[in-house]
Amino acid sequence: MAALEDSVSFGTWFNYTYDNDSEADQDTLGEVDYPSFNIYVNHHPEDSVWFFDAELRIGSGSFQSFSGDDREWGFKELAVGRELNEQWTMTLGKTAVPFGWKTFNFWPGARMLSGLEDQMNVGLRLDSDSSGPMDASYMLVKSQNWGDDTTSQDDGTLGHWGTNFAYDDDNQDSDNTLAGSQRNNTYRKINTLVGDWGYTAGNTRYALSAQVGQLVDQDDTDATETHYAAALYTEGSYGAFDLNTKVVHYDQGDPSDLADDAERDVSDPGERPITDEAAYSTRGQGQIVAISGGYQAGNWYNYVDWNMRMPDEDLGTDDTMDAVVGTRYNYGPGWIYTEVLVSNLTEEKDPVMGLEDETREVVNLTVDYYF
């Protein structure tokens, strides 16, 4: 019983949002919403090579929609692992995909890097740690989430590698995310091989990530497309300063293939509120550049996340960038986050969300508590 008590912990958070462009927020001075109660189980007994990790989230702040199901709960992580020997570790279940690094902010999330950082997917992962400068990780991703669900329950991401949004502005939340049934996605990632290789010199890790696999259409499983992505990136800590950089190339094939192959009935707009035919296609090819920097000052950690997506093809979208400026305070049992999201700095049509050309500013205050 004592071992179980040592393995289980709990946490909670809620968020205040103020969108400077929202008339409702101007009238009400913003809203406090998105609560989440979380249960963490991390069982790593010293006398066993087996281990178990899980995170169950309950509430509207759990970042879960189950492909249109309004259930406000889900497993962000659920995996069983085994230490194969002193160098190799195996993990099976829903766990982190070894692709690049995760942005520093908490609430706004990956933004332009959505689906192209270390999100959580279902599959088999192998990690090698030789206690030297070289490291490697591999993963076979079977699906984005359990079953045919298209979400991954990552914190505040716009979408995923196997998703494409083309919704009307009326279906958009104030923080540029989509909620409930409006988070339905047109296709999802399956059967994907991922590799990550790193070399650490001094305080900096230099690494390459790559992935290749399939995208399958949600309405016509015969319609598939090959996708791949590669990232060159660095991670470094220099005293009180942290600096991460990343360049990504992504390729989801011909952006018209899934649109041409899939046969859909779109007569019911409530089933899927599509604005145009391009919503059925992939996002084609392009590049993403990202920089994250942070500075530790006592109990305060100040950070900036900047990322820019540059599509190669004319899909009605242009190069655009997002930035998050934030700080978090460690008050003991948790953190208090103050984050300002400035989205679409270039005032072009968003290549991830397909939104109109406008810059938006959103203030997020988040409090969490762990015990």
Question: Topology, please?
Answer:
Blueprint (H helix, E strand, L loop, with lengths): L1 H6 E12 L3 H6 L2 E13 L6 E9 L14 E11 L4 E9 L23 E10 L4 E10 L43 E15 L2 E14 L6 E15 L2 E11 L5 H5 L23 E13 L2 E12 L8 E11 L4 E9 L16 E11 L1
Protein name: Porin
Organism: Halorhodospira neutriphila
Textual characterization of the structure:
The protein is mostly beta strands. The chain is 5% helix and 50% strand. The chain has a single domain (85-370), classed as Porin (Beta Barrel). It contains three helices and 16 strands. A 16-stranded antiparallel barrel has the order 1-2-3-4-5-6-7-8-9-10-11-12-13-14-15-16.
Features:
single chain; 371 residues; mainly beta; Porin; 5% helix; 50% strand
CATH class group: Mainly Beta
Can you tell me the CATH topology? Porin
Largest sheet properties? 16 strands, antiparallel, barrel
- The appropriate CATH architecture is Beta Barrel
Helix vs. strand class: mainly beta
* End-to-end gap: 18 Å
Percentage of residues in DSSP E strands: over 45%
* Secondary structure tally: strands: 16
Rg, nearest Å: 20 Å
Q: Number of helix segments?
A: 3
Determine the mean pLDDT. Answer: 81
Give helix % range.
Answer: under 10%
Spans of 5+ residues with little confidence (pLDDT < 50)?
Answer: 164-184, 258-280
**Whole-number total of structural domains:** 1
Question: In a nutshell, what does this entry contain?
Answer:
The protein has 371 residues and is mainly beta. It has three helices and 16 strands. Strands 1-2-3-4-5-6-7-8-9-10-11-12-13-14-15-16 form a 16-stranded antiparallel barrel.
